[in-house]
Amino acid sequence: MGEMKRAIANEQRERQTTDRYASTLVIASAIIAAIRLGREDISTPSPRLTSVIGDSVTLARTILRRVTGQ
Description:
Blueprint: H1 2-37, H2 47-68
């Protein structure tokens, strides 16, 4: 019974950490993508746009992991 409570508490802590940094991750990803896309036309979805956004999210996650020490 005690193990289950600890597992639930641990899961809640992890979720709080994830939720806390979710907005940070979104903002960082958006800034990175905006810089990379610069003056390109992004009014319609394209493979390049999708790729740049994916790469920006990955880079932002890497930076966040490094900063938080996780």
